[in-house]
Specification:
By secondary structure, the protein is an alpha/beta fold. The protein has ten helices and eight strands. β3, α1 and β4 form a beta-alpha-beta unit. α2 packs across α3.
């Protein structure tokens, strides 16, 4: 038997009882486990893997954990099978990845679309996943608190909705913007946006998700930026309220992308949960 660590925490010292078959018969060993290499699966949102890369490095460095940061198929020019449609199908692919890597006690952390994906992974009830951290997620419908419609908005307008301090928003390299050989972007949605819509649908929500979240059976930590105007803190509280074993944390002076704008505060929130 083994205690289950809290979602988002460092792996605590735990006591396991192992029954071993030997030449002299069954031997029961009680072992204190000081393993600190708890695995994390990080799931990016519509901003692509770059929106999670910095935090992945910080998490690995500070916690000495194994951190996996995949690129969702179809993003960043990666291939996307025609049959891979819907968030649940993508969630199943990630559970299959954990099976392939033979990982256990995995904490899944997802931001925005990745938060919705983390919730879907939690609903699959994989024994390999022990907790989830949902950061400024999209995916549910909350009466009176709709998701912001960013279609047709310019990048600066989206950044004003996404950041407490838009000056912290990532900027394209100066050399790239000044290079006369650089081709202008093609008209219409970018490939990443097309991939996102292919999974989430044009509404970026599932009307039945909030009801389904009642079936989540692992600890979940819901973290939200107080200045998020893509999905407001009230939307976040509704997300947390839909999950039976959830904890809600509001991060001050932070918007839709805490891992970009306030990575230290996000890491602190994950560590604090393990001390509760």
């Amino acid at each position: 038997m083994s205690s289950t660590p809290a979602a988002g925490s460092l792996r605590p010292v735990r006591t396991d009882v192992h029954t071993l078959e030997t030449s002299t018969g069954a031997v029961e060993l009680t072992v204190r486990d000081h393993d600190r290499a708890r695995p994390f699966l990080l799931l990016h949102g519509g901003g692509g893997v770059a929106s999670m890369a910095g935090f992945a490095g910080l998490l690995a460095e500070r916690t000495h954990s194994r951190v996996l940061l995949p690129t969702h198929p179809g993003f960043a020019g990666t291939p996307k099978p025609a049959g891979l449609t819907g968030v649940t199908a993508l969630a199943r692919a990630y559970v299959a990845l954990l099976d392939r890597l033979d990982l256990t006690d995995v904490t899944v952390i997802g931001n925005s679309f990745g938060g919705w994906l983390a919730a879907e992974i939690a609903l699959l009830d994989s024994p390999r996943v022990s907790g989830a951290v949902i950061v400024d997620a999209i995916g549910i419908e909350v009466e009176g608190h709709p998701q912001a419609d960013i279609r047709g908005l310019s990048l600066p307008e989206i950044q004003r909705l996404s950041f407490h301090d838009p000056r912290k928003a990532p900027q394209p390299p100066a050399a790239a913007t000044q290079d006369p050989r650089r081709q202008p972007p093609a008209p219409g949605p970018s490939p990443d946006v097309q991939a996102l819509v292919g999974y989430a649908g044009p509404a970026m929500a599932d009307p039945g998700l909030a009801e389904r979240l009642a079936k989540v059976a692992i600890p979940v930590h819901v973290v939200w930026g107080e200045s998020d105007r893509i999905v407001t803190p009230d939307y976040g509280k509704a997300f947390a309220a839909a999950i039976p074993m959830s904890t809600f944390t509001l991060l001050p002076r932070t918007g839709h992308l805490p891992q970009v704008e306030s990575p230290e505060e996000l890491l602190g929130a994950l560590r604090d949960l393990g001390n509760r």
